[in-house]
């Protein structure tokens, strides 16, 4: 390989999804002295193209108030707000039981952003907004760029990548390699990183619903004996009031439900969820994905960090996965900003160990919550039933306890 085909950067990020793009933006903001390359396997849309969103069949992400604060600090909130529905109230209930909990942004000023507990944004809009902002930075975006080989060397990482089949390899050297290419990462496997996985033997059905009445910024989390159900507010479009559905159920039920005609699916959903959100009038195409908890045994090594779903893939309850990833990105960017890193330097183990210590408690609390809450609410036993009802009652009646719970979920708890 000739010298003309070699390049060195301070940070190379493999994976241009929401995790990788968010980290690149934070590095551009907090660490402008560092050279950064972002490699994404797929071609990216033109940054000048307008964002066109269908009324139905889009997936959405719940962004906590703390994450909105981060996006605001990056100057992205004005671009995102047009595609967001605010979460002003969260209603949590246990199917068939009297106790529940309602949280309002007005009652939790320390855990809110601009009067919101969070917001829901459609993924089809979030990705283009992130990449548009990235195009205004000095980040080198390589797409399509397939990473064919990675070698960890004394002065960082060496990547061989190509722009497509039949294209020659180009070599990229980096002082720090960040892997953010999603769950089941082949890059992690190639680096010998072991991932521990717990299969929940459940699937999440996701779709967009048309509802009869305005959701008024309310997000619903309903626990049932088969698993949690979430209805999240979406922006109104084409005259329709819309909500995003995440319905956890058994693998057997999921196979049946996703094949039902629209009117039968709506009837089953309405019976299961109830009428809190009003009449459900329409459902888009239903898709589903398996639920599991996967954790990388190593999230960092010398000159190497894992971020996003390849580091930790969570149950969707309470929508904590992407928000935890954003806090990881923020922690890493601030660690690199605070270090005395010269151009073309490597990132030592001591800095990454400090980053890991700083992130440990937040990860443990968030991952533990996402792992333990669904089986607790699904258990039919009298002890578990009493425990969860006592917990909901305590949260409903004890403002300091509720404030701490909301603060952690909103990303302000630590």
Automatic annotation (TrEMBL):
It holds the Pfam family FAD_binding_3. The chain crosses the membrane at residues 12-30. Belongs to the UbiH/COQ6 family. Keywords: FAD, Flavoprotein, Membrane, Monooxygenase, Oxidoreductase, Transmembrane, Transmembrane helix. One of its GO terms (biological process) is ubiquinone biosynthetic process. It comes from the Bacteria. PANTHER family: 2-OCTAPRENYL-6-METHOXYPHENOL HYDROXYLASE (PTHR43876:SF8), UBIQUINONE BIOSYNTHESIS MONOOXYGENASE COQ6, MITOCHONDRIAL (PTHR43876). Its cofactor is FAD. Pathway: Cofactor biosynthesis; ubiquinone biosynthesis. Coiled coil: none annotated. One of its GO terms (molecular function) is FAD binding. InterPro entries: FAD-bd, FAD/NAD-bd_sf, UbiH/COQ6, UbiH/COQ6_monooxygenase. Gene3D superfamilies: FAD/NAD(P)-binding domain (3.50.50.60). NCBIfam families: Ubi-OHases (TIGR01988). It comes from Microbulbifer thermotolerans. Residues 8-361 form the FAD-binding domain. This is 2-octaprenyl-3-methyl-6-methoxy-1,4-benzoquinol hydroxylase. Signal peptide: none annotated.
């Amino acid at each position: 390989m000739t010298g003309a085909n070699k390049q060195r950067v301070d940070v190379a990020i493999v994976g241009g999804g929401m995790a990788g793009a968010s980290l690149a933006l934070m590095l551009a903001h907090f660490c402008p002295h560092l050279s950064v390359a972002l490699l994404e396997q797929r071609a990216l849309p033109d940054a000048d193209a307008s964002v066109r969103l269908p009324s139905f069949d889009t997936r959405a992400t719940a962004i906590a108030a703390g994450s909105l604060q981060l996006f605001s600090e990056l100057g992205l909130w004005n671009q995102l707000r047009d595609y967001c529905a605010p979460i002003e109230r969260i209603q949590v209930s246990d199917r068939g039981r009297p106790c529940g909990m309602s949280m309002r942004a007005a009652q939790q000023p320390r855990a809110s952003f601009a009067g919101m507990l969070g917001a829901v944004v459609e993924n089809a809009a979030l990705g283009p907004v992130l990449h548009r902002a990235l195009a205004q930075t000095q980040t080198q975006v390589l797409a399509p760029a397939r990473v064919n080989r990675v070698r960890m060397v004394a002065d960082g990482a060496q990547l061989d990548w190509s722009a497509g089949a039949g294209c020659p390899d180009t070599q990229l050297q980096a002082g720090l390699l960040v892997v953010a290419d999603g769950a089941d990462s082949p890059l992690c496997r190639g680096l010998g990183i072991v991932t521990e996985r717990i299969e929940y033997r459940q699937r999440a059905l996701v779709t967009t619903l048309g509802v009869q009445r305005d959701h008024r910024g309310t997000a619903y989390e309903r626990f049932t004996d088969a698993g949690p159900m979430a209805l999240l507010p979406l922006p109104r479009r084409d005259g329709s009031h819309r909500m995003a559905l995440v319905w956890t159920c058994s693998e057997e039920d999921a196979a049946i439900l996703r094949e039902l005609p629209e009117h039968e699916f709506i009837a089953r959903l309405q019976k299961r969820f109830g009428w809190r959100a009003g009449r459900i009038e329409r459902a888009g195409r239903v898709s589903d994905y398996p639920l599991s908890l996967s954790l990388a045994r190593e999230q960092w090594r010398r000159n190497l960090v894992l971020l996003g779903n390849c580091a930790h893939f969570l149950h969707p309850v309470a929508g904590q996965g992407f928000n935890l990833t954003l806090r990881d990105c923020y922690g890493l960017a601030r660690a690199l900003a605070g270090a005395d890193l010269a151009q073309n330097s490597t990132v030592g183990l001591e800095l990454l160990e400090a980053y890991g210590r700083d992130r440990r408690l937040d990860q443990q609390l968030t991952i533990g919550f996402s792992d333990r809450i669904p089986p607790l609410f699904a258990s039919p036993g009298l002890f578990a039933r009493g425990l969860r009802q006592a917990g909901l009652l305590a949260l409903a009646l004890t403002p300091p306890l509720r404030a701490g719970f909301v603060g952690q979920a909103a990303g302000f708890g630590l």
